[in-house]
């Protein structure tokens, strides 16, 4: 299947010499939810701006829907929606008129039934006659989503869509994003909330200092880079690791009462949990009692932090099939 978005060698260097994007390659599949993760200044918003016409690249190419965006920008841009990070909008306009106007900006005819459907889906219909400035921060962000959906985009960018939104509203918006995917919309989101990517994304990309470190299916990334940590509390202290378990990635606490396992990861996933089970069997065979086991599996956030703190990006072969 042809990708809905294909970015090759994308570069952006500003007049002051700062390079925000350094030859980014990225392929987005039709119908997926793709999460782009990275710290402040990593290049996430610049990348979105380049696709949406807000930033002029200094190198590389962008193809959307199988066509070169630089040649057919106006027509292709009409098929792309953007929910920006900033809340700036026409604050004195009523919600309904503002969202309706957004559809007209793309030269589309009025569609009152569609606009009503969008506003109802985002719990905005009861607020349709209120000025945007009177709404809460969470409701204002919903208005931005409604404005982006008004022209029925096939590809939707969400730049920090839940920034400043409370937990309840955030989870409600997750449901709305999942509903968009069910309707066939391809969604690309940037977020500081790693749990959003873990909750919703099919694939995850990690960007640092204008370079893509990794792109992969979320489950595959967690299988390959995830780690297991287990703390085994012993009934009696040990002076040294018994020979039977010396080959495992274990360390002994200073007081000899806790065995710490750190391992797992690699292809196939689950290796860490299996090894912990083997360790406990060896302890039992050696007559060593334990009173508690505390096991922790890496989250996507753990993997994200480890990648960003690592001195080097993963080798090219570890960057996933999209690169």
UniProtKB/TrEMBL annotation:
Molecular function via GO: ATP binding
PROSITE patterns linked: ABC_TRANSPORTER_1, ABC_TRANSPORTER_2
Keywords: ATP-binding, Nucleotide-binding, Transport
Record has Phosphoprotein as a keyword: no
Protein known as: ABC-2 type transport system ATP-binding protein
InterPro entries from the UniProt entry: AAA+_ATPase (IPR003593), ABC_transporter-like_ATP-bd (IPR003439), ABC_transporter-like_CS (IPR017871), ABC_transporter_ATP-binding (IPR050763), P-loop_NTPase (IPR027417)
Taxonomic source organism: Novosphingobium panipatense
CDD domains associated with the record: ABC_DR_subfamily_A (cd03230)
All residue ranges annotated as the ABC transporter domain in the record: 5-234
């Amino acid at each position: 299947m042809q990708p809905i978005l294909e970015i090759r060698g994308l570069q952006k260097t500003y007049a002051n010499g700062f390079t925000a994007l350094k030859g980014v390659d990225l392929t987005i599949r039709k119908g997926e939810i793709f999460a782009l993760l990275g710290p402040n200044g990593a290049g996430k918003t610049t990348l979105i701006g380049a696709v949406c016409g807000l930033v002029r690249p200094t190198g590389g190419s962008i193809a959307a829907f199988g066509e070169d965006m630089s040649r057919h920008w106006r027509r292709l841009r009409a098929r792309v929606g953007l929910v920006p990070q900033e809340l700036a909008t026409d604050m004195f306009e009523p919600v309904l008129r503002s969202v309706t106007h957004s559809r007209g900006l793309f030269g589309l005819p009025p569609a009152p039934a569609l606009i009503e459907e969008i506003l109802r889906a985002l719990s905005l219909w009861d607020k349709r006659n209120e000025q945007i400035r009177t709404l809460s921060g969470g409701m204002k962000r919903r208005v931005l989503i409604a404005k982006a959906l008004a022209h029925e985009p096939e590809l939707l960018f969400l730049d920090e869509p839940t920034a400043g939104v409370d937990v309840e509203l955030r989870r409600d918006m997750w449901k709305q994003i999942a509903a968009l995917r069910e309707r066939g919309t391809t969604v690309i989101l940037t977020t500081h909330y790693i749990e959003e990517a873990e909750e919703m994304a099919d694939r995850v990309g990690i960007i640092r200092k204008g370079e893509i470190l990794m792109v992969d299916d979320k489950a595959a990334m967690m299988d390959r880079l995830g780690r297991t940590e287990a703390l085994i509390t012993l009934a009696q202290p040990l002076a040294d690791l018994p020979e039977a378990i010396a080959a495992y990635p274990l360390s002994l606490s200073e007081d000899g009462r806790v065995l710490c396992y750190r391992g797992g990861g690699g292809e196939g996933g689950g290796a860490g949990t299996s090894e912990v089970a083997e360790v406990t069997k060896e302890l039992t065979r050696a007559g060593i009692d334990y009173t508690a086991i505390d096991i922790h599996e890496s989250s996507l956030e753990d993997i994200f932090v480890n990648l960003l703190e690592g001195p080097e990006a993963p080798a090219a072969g570890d960057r996933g099939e999209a690169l």
